[in-house]
Design brief:
This protein is about 40% helix and about 10% strand. With about 375 residues, the chain is of the alpha/beta class. Its EC number is 3.4.13.-.
Length: about 375
């Protein structure tokens, strides 16, 4: 396999920002591939993962680190994973930590990939209201720029998309949102239940994001967002990223055309200045799909047993879009948007410009 130094950034004409993705090679570390959640140490950030990210045209990606689910102690595990990723970035000059919107622009200019530290569950802040600001401040100082309030189940901030009661944001959750606003961290409502999302958007002093989702009007599944949620986020200056996931269609067998339909719907609801992409996957494609399918049923069963799965996850559905993966995924999406009549200015916004502009509003230029 070629090394990362033999790749150069593909010039797609504008920055490409993945509002939620991975910076790893899914073909390595297969001994943990069927587990409930891989840790950052188990993910392999190798020459292939970095080189193919550059070759795809990727300028920056929001990665998931820290506690999301499972038996790890949330705070301790999160601090450890921050240490792991700081070590990865220190050893890979092709990668750079993103703290501001300008860091994304610089990564694009310099032919590097900006890495945005993000959480997909906020429980690492703990349960003591007196510690919220110190914990959020610590994470922000370490470079965390995105914190999602909930994963699929409920937590003490609010309900996730699969929580049965659809409660809204709790008092504790409001205090966390206040602290995230104060420390210039994105409040991400991906995976949240509808009431928690609407409450957080209305409560937050700063615009919020839904970095990886679909549109429920197109595919009526809990992981997708209603038009009311999408519209309110956009009206208040936020950002919506469309994922490359099976929830884009009721069959669970999503294709690139389905991604386009959700982007088109989101643009129609939110306007062209609020919509982007958050694939929820890596650039490097899985090489052996037959072997992957062999352990997929086990993985889906583990998630269901742990109460963290989502409606639409089944043993016969892949957690990615089958014809929108690998090094050409962004080029393919651009071509399909062109075929829908989108001009280059609108496409540039969707592929990265809107996220960068939202980052300026939250993090600063």
């Amino acid at each position: 396999m070629s090394t990362a130094t033999e790749y150069v950034r593909a010039d797609l004409g504008f920055p490409v920002v993945n509002a939620l993705g991975e910076m790893s090679n899914p073909n390595a570390g297969q001994e943990t591939a069927g587990s409930l959640q891989q840790t950052s140490e188990e993910m392999v950030v190798d020459d292939r993962a970095i080189g193919e990210s550059l070759a795809s045209g990727l300028s920056a990606v929001n990665i998931t680190l820290g506690y999301t689910l499972g038996d790890h102690p949330p705070y301790e595990h999160t601090v450890h994973e921050l240490d792991v990723w700081d070590g990865i970035l220190a050893s890979r000059p092709e990668l750079v930590k993103v703290r501001t919107a300008e860091d994304i622009r610089a990564a694009h200019r310099d032919g590097r990939v900006g890495v945005i530290y993000g959480f997909q569950n906020a429980v690492a802040v703990g349960e003591d209201p007196a510690l919220i600001d110190a914990r959020v401040g610590e994470f922000a100082d370490r470079g965390v720029r995105v914190i999602q309030l909930t994963y699929n189940p409920a937590n003490h901030l609010g309900d996730g998309a699969m929580a049965p009661h659809n409660r809204g944001l709790t008092d504790f959750g409001r205090q966390v949102v206040d602290s995230l606003n104060a420390h210039k961290v994105m409040v991400d409502l991906s995976h949240s239940g509808e009431s928690t999302c609407l409450d957080a958007v209305r409560y937050s002093a700063e615009p919020i994001s839904i970095n990886h989702t679909g549109c429920r009007a197109v595919a009526d599944l809990p992981r997708n967002k209603t038009d009311e949620e999408l519209r309110l986020v956009a009206e208040r200056g936020g950002f919506v990223g469309i994922y490359f996931m099976p929830f884009l269609t009721l069959s669970g067998h999503a294709h690139a055309a389905d991604v386009v339909e959700h982007i088109v719907h989101a643009v129609n609801v939110c306007g062209e200045d609020a919509v982007g992409i958050g694939s929820d996957g890596s650039v490097t494609a899985i090489d052996d799909l037959d072997a992957y399918r062999d352990h997929l049923a086990e993985h889906v069963a583990l998630r269901a047993a742990a109460g963290v799965g989502a409606a639409g996850e089944r043993a016969d559905t892949l957690p990615f879009v089958i014809d929108l993966r690998g090094v050409d995924q962004f080029r393919t999406l651009i071509r399909l948007l062109e075929e829908r009549g989108y001009n280059q200015e609108r496409i540039a916004k969707i592929m990265g410009g809107n996220f960068i502009a939202y980052g300026e509003r939250i993090w600063g230029a």
